[in-house]
Predict the structure.
Amino acid sequence: MPVDVQRLVADVLSSKKYASMDEALVRRVCADLSTRYDKHSDALRATKTALHRMHQAFLRGDGAQRAHHLIRERGSHNLSTDRAFARQLLALHASTAERLPTIESACAFLGAFIGFTDRVVDIGSGFAPFALPFYPHLPAAYLACEISAPIVSLLNAYFAALDKPAFTAIPLDAAVTTPPPADVALLLKLLPLLEQQRKGRARDLLKTLPAQRIIVSFPVTTLSGRSKGMEAFYSTFLESNLPDYLTITARQRIGSELFYALSAQ
Ligand SMILES: C[S@@+](CC[C@H](N)C(=O)[O-])C[C@H]1O[C@@H](n2cnc3c(N)ncnc32)[C@H](O)[C@@H]1O
């Protein structure tokens, strides 16, 4: 008997850990996974694991609440240039914590492709916008898109403290929705996750992303620090999934991350 998607959604949302999750997202994951299992209990376990992997795995415990608290306490004076404070926030999300030892070089690389007048869209942003004090200059507009509702609300509190009305965060499931147009799109350590969520999504998103420049990055060591041939694997992955209209303008390994800058012809 096929797994009942309605019942799956209800069971996921009735568990405390997933109760505050966006219902549309839960429904999307349940619908995707219900077709892969015969038993309700197996589909339920797989759905919870997938939702956990998507974002809760990155938040270090109560990282979002701690970051909220730090931002409230800090106030807005000189926030956009306070690198020591930025480091405290970046340490609270596993992905940016991993980037911290090379944050200056990473932001110098990104900053070289982002002009003063550019609109940036940061897809699956996590806590990456907290690195803005490390950029050589700020762009004109910054749109952070995240699947995690607590991260969206946290980033909006940060942008309000920065007093940048053109900087904002929105909830967006990049596995099914294409983000709004921008001059520069950031896809930092996101494509492997999207590919896990929906096979073929990485290529589809690259094909349809409305941006002149795209910066993609991949983790080339695991969260526990091992490497396991990840650089070669992700180089091949990107280069073989690159749509014709995009060319590689730069490629650089920085710390535990491999960056590509892509440009639309
Ligand atoms: C590996 S982290 C990368 C975060 C950030 N880009 C960085 O490089 O530091 C992936 C982030 O993508 C978010 N995410 C996962 N699946 C997503 C999806 N389908 N749509 C949008 N965001 C997603 C997670 O919540 C998490 O914060």
Summary: The two ends are 50 Å apart (CA to CA). The longest strand covers residues 211-219. The first helix runs from residue 5 to 13. The chain has two domains: 5-56, 63-264.
